[in-house]
Amino acid sequence: MLALYYYPGNASLLPHMMLREIGAEFELRLVDRGQNAQKSAEYLKLNPSGRIPVLVDGDLVLFETAAIALHLADKFPQAGLAPALGTSERAEFYKWMIHLTNTPQAEYRAWFYPHEHVSDEAAAPAVKQASSERLNRMFDVISEQLGDRTWLLGDRFSAADLFLFMLIRWGRGMPRPPRSLPNLNALAERVLARPAVQQAIDAEGLKAPIF
Ligand SMILES: N[C@@H](CCC(=O)N[C@@H](CS)C(=O)NCC(=O)O)C(=O)O
């Protein structure tokens, strides 16, 4: 049995979209951030860092979005969310999954939680500003690498495109949102048009503008 601990629009959106693409049976379990449930004793048993998401797959309890995504891609190869093992395409897939998780996704912590990065609260707006500038440069690089290709891996759709879509979405409130880069906007539109993505968005109750 698969269960995904989620909060609408959080990093759980990536595995949620993947589960819909796969067509797997799964249960969605809300972690109520309004009640700080991600820091409850019960949830900390699943993820000692108190962060969302967690995937439960039978006896396996997995945290870290990218690890969950790689596990789902491996467990359901028929869904084609990752290229075949040992191929150059698979290596490019790893490159993007790891780049997305340890570069823009990690940087977003400073944008969304600037107070965690300061000892003096008055410095938080400056941290947020600097973070948005670093994110701009990161998205410039990704946009240049994507170019006018359909997907990050060229003609082949993969979980990395869902990941990038989620990160583009998170920046919708930034002074220069990632969607203002035409290549990223076009990719996000293509991802948004996928029925599985629509299902995940509807199930989480996400409202326009989506990115
Ligand atoms: N590296 C972690 C980061 C997860 C993360 O930062 N999740 C956010 C939501 S998108 C969260 O749980 N925020 C609430 C908190 O930090 O208390 C992962 O990819 O799973």
From TrEMBL:
TM region positions: none
Species this chain originates from: Microvirga arabica
High-level lineage: Bacteria, Pseudomonadati, Pseudomonadota, Alphaproteobacteria, Hyphomicrobiales
Residues annotated as domain GST C-terminal: 86-210
Family: Belongs to the GST superfamily.
All copies of domain GST N-terminal, residue ranges: 1-80
Protein name: Glutathione S-transferase family protein
Coiled coil location: none
